[in-house]
Amino acid sequence: VFHGRILARRLVGRETRYEVAVEARYRQRFPLVAREYLWVPSTCGCPALLEGGEYVLMARRHVNHEHTLNRVLLPPDGYARPWTPREARLVREAARHC
């Protein structure tokens, strides 16, 4: 779970790739760097992430069977909410209990 700012959006084949500036990490099961590519396995625009927008994102690490692909994946039904101080506080409090 992290707070990210969307820098760019690009359609790549049947997927959408977002370039994200990682602003804060709330729950870290895998390492994140300051800038990450966030992949959504569709081109429909779901969830709708706008360039320049800030979001609280719950993503997962996707590694393929051959271990040649390692990326941050946000499923179409994944958690992506506009970032607000209230949302950040709720996520921070939940991370302490998990």
TrEMBL record:
Q: What is this protein called?
A: ATL5 protein
User: Domain NTR, which positions?
Assistant: 1-98
Q: What is its main location?
A: secreted
- UniProt subcellular location: Secreted
Q: What is the lineage of its organism?
A: Eukaryota, Metazoa, Chordata, Craniata, Vertebrata
Domain of life (superkingdom): Eukaryota
Task: Report keywords, A-Z.
Answer: Disulfide bond, Secreted
**One protein family per Pfam:** NTR
Q: Which GO terms describe its cellular component?
A: extracellular region
